[in-house]
Design a protein that fits this description.
Structural class of chain A: mainly alpha
Largest sheet of chain B: none
Number of strands of chain A: 0
InterPro entries (chain A): Brnchd-chn_aa_trnsp_permease
Mean pLDDT of chain B: 90
Largest interface: A-B, 110 and 76 residues
Mean pLDDT of chain A: 90
Number of helices of chain B: 4
Protein name (chain A): Branched-chain amino acid ABC transporter permease
Strand content of chain A: under 5%
Transmembrane segments (chain A): 12-39, 111-128, 140-162, 168-188, 220-238
Number of helices of chain A: 13
Low-confidence stretches of chain A: none
Radius of gyration of chain B: 20 Å
Radius of gyration of chain A: 20 Å
Keywords (chain A): Membrane, Transmembrane, Transmembrane helix
Shape of chain A: globular
Helix content of chain A: over 70%
Pfam families (chain A): AzlC
Oligomer: heterodimer
């Protein structure tokens, strides 16, 4: 792409351009993952209204699959909220990195608080990649157009796919639900910034069966924190060896 | 609802569970990011540890779906689920990290197994 002058567009024009972003590859891949999420919700035994509500109010897909996992495992509300809170902690540094890019001289904090609800991995990557081609005073419009549309479309899709799945044989529902683990394993591996991030995928998975027997109802928390700590220090060890060797 | 677990015995409880267990512990971090944008270093060790634990938590859910699933997923044998995930990851790595190809390979394993079962 050439570094020409950004074209003149009105605020509505930038909102529309943002909305068109839902047809970009990362947004389409995310939509595939939401087909799987609808299957997962059906498996967990929650209603389609609850699945759609969850999509709209939580939005971050990892947080939602942990919440659905907690519902399936019969986890108590405080433990479920704690696990979701740990997984969503990464929202803070993501939003911190996004704010200086998105904020214009006249942007209100209330606007930023509202827009921050739509921050999740896909919208964040989309915005960080494209903001340099958007004039600063139009960035909130561009981001809102993309992110709010992405959330709305996927909320509606979850409701529709969940209901259509009633017509499918059980095996097809199972195959659809299996989209979720494959999507997350590959996308988290691909976006891991360091060795620890990659190790965490294997450690968290390896720790789950043990945690399942040791502490039923808290297995996600125990495996997540335990596996995460092992991966963090294991990653440091590997990095240290590499530096010395 | 005595143990504060999810149940739909009371119609409004699932929504309270989702709000308190999902919305609150997610949006509070987003809002914190907005109001403290100038005071947090996203490259710090603490942020890196938080990222690693978050990844491991999702990995635990992945393992739950692969090793201890319920419903229709449980009708697919454990070995097929493990092979499917491994095939997905291998295709992802071999295709220079294209997620859609990884998903396709994993679904082909499940589809192939279903076909074998139907023919047998």
């Amino acid at each position: 792409m050439t570094l020409s002058e950004p074209p003149e567009r009105t605020t509505a024009g930038w909102i529309l351009l943002g909305m068109k972003g839902i047809f970009s590859p990362p947004a389409l891949i995310l939509t595939t993952a939401f087909f799987g999420f609808a299957g997962l919700c059906r498996e967990a035994g929650i209603s389609w209204e609850e699945a759609a509500f969850m999509t709209a109010v939580v939005w971050a897909l990892p947080a939602k699959i942990i919440l659905v996992g907690a519902i399936t495992a019969g986890t108590s509300l405080p433990a479920a909220a704690f696990a979701v809170g740990l997984s969503s902690l990464r929202m803070t540094p993501m939003v911190v990195a996004l704010m200086p890019e998105m904020r214009g001289p006249k942007t209100r904090t209330s606007t930023l608080l509202f827009l921050s609800h739509f921050v999740a991995i896909t919208a964040w990557v989309f915005a960080m990649e494209r903001f340099d081609q958007v004039p600063r005073d139009k960035r909130t419009a561009f981001f809102g157009g993309f992110a709010a549309t992405l959330t709305t479309v996927n909320t509606i899709l979850v409701a529709i796919v969940f209901n259509l799945m009633g017509q499918l044989p059980a095996l097809a529902t199972g195959a659809l639900a299996f989209l979720t683990p494959v999507y997350f394993f590959t996308s988290l591996y691909g976006s891991a910034r360091d060795v620890s991030g990659k190790l965490a995928l294997f450690c968290g998975m390896a720790a789950l069966p043990a945690a399942h027997w040791l502490s039923p109802g808290y297995e996600l928390l125990v495996a997540g924190i335990g596996g995460g700590l092992v991966a963090y220090f294991g990653g440091k060890l590997i990095d240290g060896r590499r530096e010395r060797g | 609802m005595s143990d504060w677990v999810y149940s739909n015995a009371v119609p409004w409880w699932p929504y309270v569970f989702i709000l308190l267990g999902g919305w609150l512990p997610t949006d509070m971090w987003r809002y914190l990011g907005v109001v403290s944008a100038n005071r947090i270093d996203e490259t710090s060790e603490a942020a890196s540890l938080a990222r690693t634990i978050a990844t491991s938590l999702v990995a635990a859910v992945i393992a739950q779906l692969v090793f201890f699933p319920s419903g229709a997923l449980a009708e697919i044998p454990t070995a097929i689920r493990v092979i499917s995930l491994a095939a997905g990851f291998a295709a992802f790595q071999l295709s220079r990290r294209r997620i859609l190809l990884g998903i396709l390979a994993a679904e082909l394993v499940i589809g192939g197994w279903a076909l074998l079962v139907a023919l047998a």
